[in-house]
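User: I'm putting together a teaching handout on how multi-component assemblies are represented. Below are the sequence lines for each component of a complex, exactly as they appear in our records. Could you produce the 3D structure of the whole assembly as structure tokens, so the students can see both representations side by side? Please keep the chain order the same as the input.
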Amino acid sequence: MRLRVDGQEVETKEGALLLEVARVPTLCHHPQTETRGLCRLCLVEANGRLVPACATEAREGLEVRTETEELRALRKTLLEWLFLTTDLSLAPELRTLLEEYGGEPERWGEVPRRKGREALRDNPFFLRDYARCVNCRRCVDACGDGIMGVYALAMEGRGLLAHPTTPLDRPLPETPCVFCGNCVQVCPTGALRPLSLEV
Amino acid sequence: MRTTCPYCGVGCQVEPEVRQGRVVRVLAPDIPPNHGALCVKGRFGLDFPFSSKRLLYPMLRERKGAPLRRATWEEALDFGAERLLEVLKRRGPEAIAVFPSAKTTNEEVYLAQKLARALLGTNHVDHCSRLCHSSSTAALSRSLGGASMTNPLEDIGKTDLFLVVGSNTTETHPVIAAMIKKRVRQGARLIVVDPRYTGMAEAATLWLRVRPGTDLFLLNAMARYLLEEGLWDRAYVEARTEGFAEWQASLEPYTLEAAEEATGVPRERIAEAARLYATTPRAGAYWAMGVTQHTKGTATAQALVNLALLTGKVGVEGAGLNPLRGQNNVQGAGDMGALPDVLPGYGKVAEEGVRRHFEALWGVPLNPTPGLRMTEVFEAIPQVEAIYLIGEDPVTSEPYQEHLKAKLRALPFLIVQDILENETTPFADLVLPAASFLEKDGTFTNTDRRVQRVRRVLDPPGEARPDWWITQELGKRLAKALGRPWREYPHPEAIWEEVRQALPGMMGGITYRRLEAEGVRWPCPHEHYPGEAVLFRERFNTPSGKARFFPVHPTPPAEPPSEDYPFTLCTGRVLFHWHGGTLSRNSQLNAAYPELKVEVNPLDAARLGIADGEPIEVVSRRGRIRARAWVTDRTPEGVVYAPFHFAEAPANRLTLDALDPISRIPEFKVSAVRLEKVD
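Assistant: Of course. Below is the structure of the complete assembly, with chains in the same order as your input.
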């Protein structure tokens, strides 16, 4: 099938996601975890409508734009708010992206930080530092349907209080967790990280 | 830098990040076989090379009773060669055994068996597969003419029904278990045959809780039922198999009623499992130690082979017969000829044509008599006077520990080549410190025949050297004294080049250069060939090209429960540990599972007044160990389950050394024990 991306004609296969033909930043998307459509960084304009490239299938004749003024402004704001509310000091790639889009988080003044909770150290292998979490859900999906089928992680709370944790917030050793660390590998912000990196 | 995980046979690709001499993080690349996923061992257990128990310099014992003392490499290698030559001269090649390691690389295994055969002239060559899948390989070899998974791991995504027998996959091959469970979430069915409520049983669509050791009866009954119902693949059986009529007649006693009686599984469920397996075209069988570690291990694996042939499942995409291999390079160790009856590539030592090929390559005459198997070698001490043991801890992993220790004490000369001190090191007369997987180059072959690179990330600590270097240096000294040729290799790649030359049809197309991108599966005869995914599509690797049915019948366990020893002890592994524990207990993993826990059914616990977490003693006719009771209905009534990873409480102090008559695998899955409370 053929479609146009930023004026260029491209060819792709049936069922392909727009993400496969459009070069756009992503955060929540991860090929192994099947997470999609949460962070909105990959929004593109398709026939005039804004849609997430990671959750939209390519269609014959579609006209896709990836870098309009509107999209740039949107991504800039999204990134600024991520930095305002979350400790992203262990996410250098996001910092680079913020700079690429000319983001200035300070321009919004003081906003409530999402969660100031202490890092949880409840197992011998990795810690959970939710002050660094952007709720991308990759860890939840890696643990559940995406890879392991273990379901030791779930989202809890709403709005600014929402974050992934264990069912009933139990310590990990009291959950079905098998400590495969696949959640740690897919975490984009260092919210989940090996204890061996700490010393 | 990318390398291959050294734990199980899945062969996950890993990228360990080393900072200041420590592994600080392990990531997995998005390539086969694991596509970015790992289990706890690969993710957090790769720090054992930094353990304080590393062997850092050679040590030797001048005479029995003397202490081990530090030696230079020169001194140690000369000493080893002299002692081996002395035994060879006095007693002949039959008095020497060489055990290459399924934890070392293909190149190292190839070299070690070459040293045994081309220099010492002995076929007493074997490896730890004797203790795990030797019964599967026996059954698969005689029926199909090949001993490996018939289907690739990618086929899991194309399989509509999994028949998993005696495999605690979620703990022993966690990444494969995750793939299977994911496929089941997409709608595939999962039939699990296991006495224990494992993670696989939890995910199963149909769980058949057989009594321990009755799988064979169940599988025979499934076959008989399918024949009766006409649910078998007549065309396949006629075109592709032989020995059917005789086998069919042998199934007479295995009615569903008799099977229910023998296995404890209701007849309707046996029939349902048989029906589902037979009527799903893409139905794959997977199995592990629950099938193999019995005195009827070969027979049980054979029953599974028979069932798959009856229903036309071999040589078919998404189906097949798939033994899940334990060690990182156990497939490769077999491929490279670490077996007493075959040379590299599985050609029999007894066949002149096979020998002639290797005689031409190595420039020496070869011994035509198959050697002893590992379990038999230990029995043959002190007729066997010298053992060159690489990367293995038989004191923890062999059955009936006290007996084995007595044998090792009676052994005149033992070389232990290992990376870490373990329970066998104290018995050594010569200790050769080896490099770990992080400190050398080479290849491992995983469970689905994929040859993958192992890359040097670090320098070996102290004076440790790669196994290939050690074997090469020892060989050099033997060759000089014996006046035999012995090639020297500058790098493992040169050894691999010789393997390609030795096995052109199997490995000819696999080069280090190709392995840069990702692993390649054998058989692979040409460099432009992708490697065979599904084996036996057209013909089997037997002289007639057909697969053969073999009638098999259950036999009772060697040591059934009795009044004094009323429980059946079943040994195995847990998620956090690896075999004898040499690796995992010297890693971060030990913190998650520091001591032995023995699973006891709540009904048995209540009867004996044992509380969860209470210390108990498990006692067999051969010894006793102390453990903590884990009261759980994972394990059925009358059975206790003990992992064998704990040197301070070794489950193999309890097990018995009864062997399967064909493969000589020990019956690790059934010994009689009693439980005692501790005051």
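A couple of points students might notice: Residues 133 and 292 of chain B are 6 Å apart (CA to CA). DSSP finds 25 helices and 25 strands in chain B.
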